């Protein structure tokens, strides 16, 4: 009954089985020159309805930082939401990988960068002035850190603006599956058709052991990626076991099936909780994260009942984050709601 | 029948089973705050007969480059053998992680740095001269890139010299298990008792899926490591699956058992081959790598017979590298020898 | 009649004479092993009433970025005002020199960091959390970018808070002379006695050709500076000519004399202008910079009359910056005021 | 009577006068938007008989490291002579500025890279292999660190080979003037006509106070240079005083006049010394440096007589370096020779 994060969950059986199957071959060519890695690119080409160049890596931070490293010079600026993972939770990985580029955080409701806020920042970017760091890239998080989802038109508007200013565009899709599952549209619509150049396509938070794919829609940007990945220690030798995870993840829509489950558990949970008195939802729940304020005694009692989750920092007392995952059980969700309801009744 | 490298081999069953077992817990704390990661440190403390601080990572390049990042300032020099993996095969990872430190390659027979060669280089290191990069660290590879093994006294002599010059000492133990198995001594003797501060303790080449441990004997050097690992994208969220590999690897001497097998297969192979006419061994075979010159037609015929291995660059024609692994089968070795012998007889 | 910046001014005669004098010696030891460089450190020791370690460099950006490079690890955070030169005007030099550390801009009135704003940011700094960049240094600008001056007690309060959180403290003293001249107190009171560890002591904006001194009150921080300066290409070979500038600058209070003149010209100018109708002063004028809003026609007419100055970006129409320098002539100031007054009368 | 280095000499009167003249203007636009800087580019365009893009900087290390920063990716290799200043004497500046690229030193007689040695290294460069750093640039030193001078055909042969392998080509012309003076040919012949893309054009060692120009023959390479120079703290605000030095240096052939003097003093000195018994010249003297072995008592006695020079490290006893400069006096040279001769006679 752990709602701390989707990274507390383990590995979905299909992916574990794929690793075992990959191990049946006594030998396979290392460093990605194997059949599994080739299949990953084929899956992604099918899913995105166009040729792509893709590189498996083992963490979202690596996917993001390596992506950015080919999108900005060391004197560049990457625009992102001020709660973006790259800005807040990666201990400066983008700065390390880019050789010291600067992140420019932009505030916005519901975890989203407002177009007019980006426009204002870009209007003051001093492009061409040697005293200033130079506009280089835009990074969007999809689903956002607030558990909301950019609509394709929102992505397109931001990317169009970015392109007008010569920016490259990145999507941190650590929870990309949850976003696609929510919108129920073609992944192409949400990415390159909306103007995205590079996608960090997450799997670790959605049932993989440790796997993400960096997907290049702008092939030219991919040219130096292989060297940068190796140089960063992110080219693992027995690559088949990383690619096998992604191969299984992308086969027969497993990635969407897992995300749909996580999303539906979040919906069930938020609907149950918002029916209770004294409850305040911080953001619309569109993916698998719920940011919600409960009565403080309820929060304490839920913990005593064995539920695990994080208090949300910089918020009013009783504000917590609940994350569902591919393996969240409906009984756990219902138990959570029942427990909260019981406490709520007691309090009333 | 693949003798290309120990990284073409898959995962040993005990380690795969450990991953599966780790997956039985529906949830575990992420980022290394889990029971498996704790056990890894406990194993290593037992194996090295002293407290250590240890960090799992997923590749040897990451282990090496992150280790070096805490051992040298950006204006420092790392001394290493001129065939060292860090110097030749990591696409500049040490330079990236150290912020631009310099590697100073030193030549030496059998893949080893000679004490007098190191002494000579250090005597000309211009310590304190602001125009020169400054002596910072020594990195030894154990087993070496030539498939040989430093004796404890050799390690101790090099480390003593290094310490006299204020250097930190690193061991690239990508094949540390093979070295220990060969020497049949306490791992402590070969590392901290001989003056090593930090060890990249390899598992990937010896049956793990993707796992290495950075082991600090000098605890102070470990202080900033956690930040550096995260910043590099090498702190994986579902750490239990990385640590579970190392946990199994270090349990009941599995790591040594696997290495002993690889070493013994190499011995069997080299003994069979050196009994043939026209064969020249480049280096003593002490671990699981054989560098050997065979008649050119024999090499071609072995390939036709389905054996896979690398030609060795910068060598005389017919020079190849053969690597055995934890899962190399005796029948494959014997078949290799028989094939070579048959061709040899034909030729004669 | 140029009020664009103090860097449009040339070299004060005393400093030019010192360069010529230094050139009378046919030879001098290079790289700072000369008499002039030694004297600079002696002057600074006298001025700051305690032993210091000092390094001449040729630009304020170099002084700042090199200072920060010894005050933060690559995963560190440097807190500064959001209009600080290091944050806005150095094209990412701090990020380059620190290996990718992050600047954390803090807003505050009159170009100053408010103590409570710093306290709030530090309270949320997540020290020790590997996912977050780590608190490392505080940088104050004195005089500020708004032309105001921190009082010793303000510096002390900020530094005390910084020290409680383990930060190192830096002062960007590009206009340090103007600040000291304004406060008319001992330089020691404004720096190390108030908790500053490292000072970028400016001279270029105050009559030097190209010269700044990095002054270390925390001697330990200076240990690696020499290597970092050389590595950055900032150790000039004929150092005597850089040090001779500082030697003259620091002799017999020339630095304060020049700054007092610039400050008094600014006072004369601002008093003249604020006596006119329709004028709005943005910040108190405490050093040699004036940020002021004039009627738009007045601004245009002043330009036509041959005066040069910058429009101030992100401000209401008619907002300009006026900077006085060591060589600003009283007649030019009076002419500026007269011209503005005449236009003002015409308008009325 | 100082023969230690050309950087112990001061500033030639013409250049000092130019600084004074530049100071007559009470104001000038900062950061290189001034008439002096424009003239520097015009001079260089005339001297090199083609349009060039040029950037003044204050040190040879800055010129070299900034040049290399636009010629190699962080995972690149820069080939250079193993005694090159960039490899030996810049405390790792190239590694810092390139984000961790690698220098690959190549040995060769008389300070020159032999074509066949470069060819051999490039043949083994493993271009395209992600495990290896990638061939990026060639840097030649002209005049060399051995005081010799590459002939145009030698430069052309090395550059042609470099271009075949896709390398960019850099010339460290810290003593470019001495090389041109020796060859007495068009600077164009020695640079872009021979295949050079970027030149560090030195002035500091030849009579300037602190000034070098980075000259781009490949305009595309210059695109990002302005940002990189600023970011490194090498864009000085009162640029007119830096450019005024170069303006004077390049006017009416002053740079060649000064170099011819230095070269002729070196010729006079070496001819005088090699006429003495027991003297061994290490390299042909083609510029303004002499590497020579004298009898040990002679060396000691010369020092006692007040001459200053460096013992040459890693050489036989009595080996010294003598450097002449733009201001070396013939009487000092003759006195040196006479003193050595007298001692030589005494010894005989």
Automatic annotation (TrEMBL), chains A, B, C, D:
Its EC number is 4.1.2.48. InterPro entries: ArAA_b-elim_lyase/Thr_aldolase, Low_specificity_L-TA_bact, PyrdxlP-dep_Trfase, PyrdxlP-dep_Trfase_major, PyrdxlP-dep_Trfase_small. Transmembrane segments: none annotated. Keywords: Lyase, Pyridoxal phosphate. It comes from the Bacteria. It catalyses: L-threonine = acetaldehyde + glycine; L-allo-threonine = acetaldehyde + glycine. The keyword DNA repair does not apply. Its cofactor is pyridoxal 5'-phosphate. Pfam families: Beta_elim_lyase (PF01212). Residues 3-293 form the Aromatic amino acid beta-eliminating lyase/threonine aldolase domain. Belongs to the threonine aldolase family. Catalyzes the cleavage of L-allo-threonine and L-threonine to glycine and acetaldehyde. PANTHER family: L-THREONINE ALDOLASE-RELATED, LOW SPECIFICITY L-THREONINE ALDOLASE. Homotetramer. This is L-threonine aldolase. It comes from Dongia soli.
